[in-house]
Amino acid sequence: MTDHGSQVAGSRGQAYVEFIIVLPLLLLLIAGIIGFGQMIYVKLATEAAAWAATRHAVSTLNTDRGPAQAFVASRYALQGFGLNPDSARATLWAYGGWNRGSRIQVQVCYDVPPPPVPYGDYLLPSRICSTQTMPVYRWKSRW
Predict the structure, then answer these.
(1) Is the Cβ–Cβ distance between 104 and 94 less than 8 Å?
(2) Region at 101 (left for phi over 0; alpha for psi -120 to 50; beta for the rest)
(3) In sequence order, which residues have a C-beta less than 8 Å from that of residue 30 and are 6 or more positions away?
(4) Residue 6 buriedness (CB in 10 A; 0-12 / 13-18 / 19+)
(5) How far, CA to CA in Å, does 12 sit from each of 1, 25, 78, 87, 91?
(6) Model pTM?
(7) How does residue 30 score in pLDDT terms, banded at 50, 70 and 90?
């Protein structure tokens, strides 16, 4: 005759051991998904910041105001995504001067903290950059 109570206790102990073995892998997987999602979110934010900066830069023919407008627009776009604009760097290039039809290119790079997984700083990038290029408006007036 077998003891039914000992079989139930044995299967319960086996479930605990299996859970303890699988739990670290599950937590690592969840942390990796969160880290990857953070990278995608920052990439979308830098794309929006680069677009906004380029759009504001090309809307003026004033060489002094264009870069200032671009940098302010990129900061506001990053703040709109809830990111710290102090962790970003925007670079502006004006190909062919600041004349009608010339190209303006803005690159926005954001320093991302490492994800909460082991070796996450080696697996995922620490800086995410996006670039946008637009021509200065041909129809824009000088005043």
Answers:
(1) yes
(2) left
(3) none
(4) exposed
(5) 21, 21, 51, 50, 60
(6) 0.77
(7) confident
Please, are residues 137 and 69 in contact by the beta-carbon 8 Å criterion?
no
From residue 61, give the alpha-carbon distance in Å to each of 65, 119, 132: 8, 47, 18
Both tokens of 106, joined, read 């803005």
Residue 41 has pLDDT above 80, yes or no: yes
- Which token pair is 50? 């680069």
Q: Give the other-Cβ count within 10 Å of 81's Cβ.
A: 15
97-101, 129-133, 139-143: which has the highest mean pLDDT? 129-133
Average pLDDT, rounded, for the chain: 84
- Is 79's pLDDT higher than 60? yes
C-beta of residue 112 within 8 angstroms of C-beta of residue 38 = yes
CA distances from 98 to 52, 90, 92, 108, 130 (A): 18, 18, 12, 20, 22
Residues 124, 36: Cα–Cα separation, whole Å? 8
Q: 130: which strand partners? A: 108
